Amino acid sequence: MSGTGHGNAAYEDARPGGVAATGSTLGLRMPRALSRSRAGRTVVRILLYALAVFVFVLPLWTLLATALSGGLARLGQVMVFPQHLTWGNISQAWDLGVARGLLNSVIVAAVGLVLQLVVSTLAAYALARKRFRGSTLILLVILATMMMPEEVIAVPLFQVLGKIPEPFTGGTLVDSYGGLILPLVGWALPVFVLTGFMRRIPLELEEAARMDGASDFRILTRIIVPLCLPALGTCAVFGFLMIWDQYLLPLLVAQSPSMNTLTVVVTSLQASQEQGEGVKLAAVLILMVPAVLVYLALQRLFERGLLSGSLKG
Hints:
Shape: globular
Strand content: under 5%
Helix content: 55-70%
Number of helices: 14
Radius of gyration: 30 Å
CATH topology of the largest domain: MetI-like fold
Largest sheet: none
Number of strands: 0
CATH class of the largest domain: Mainly Alpha
Distance between the termini: 67 Å
């Protein structure tokens, strides 16, 4: 025992400062028992995961189970477990106006989104790359429009659309695709996002292009726009969701059932007492699918746009 004690003492004295060799000093990670605090954190984490599943996954699962179930669900009743999987509810909702509403929504969203991105890109290029008096004030005025609820301008907008002639039919923009699309072209969010993104692009690139004889349009299309693709992807996702979820505008502008968008059709089905919950939720499922597909298609650009915006100050 004494020899062992003298050996340990000699080993400790041989180390700098006389520190005993342990698992931590040798760089080894010693196993430790599960403490109460660690067990408590694990329980809290499991409860948070269960809460997230209950809040987000369970509603989607019940929507799918009820929409694809052949069992007749009573009003206000949803199914957790599907019964007799079938496409009957979807086909029935399709025949109740969802098909026409989907077509109208796709036309409005596609044309409106393209025009919105074009107008926002041109406006952002002027505000970010051109120096003129009042540019900051103009940007603030554009941003101020986001603070105004759409209900405030709904009636004046309807009156203005009722006085603008529609060139193809001879009527007005009310009850036409033009009335559904034109009010959605100007939106402050993509102008603000693209303006901030374009201001971070070095001026040397634009000056070098001008020395080579490039015009403003060529600089915009060949240099600025390719560098702004992540921001454009972010604006495209938000812009599509904004246009796709429009309800008040088509409710006012669309005067005939053939011009109703999908949101109006789905809302009218939800208020119906004749259709079961399976048909109603099938219409909701059709309404959700395009938004999910657009996000998945632009997911990479969307994430790059958010990441670049968070890294660059």
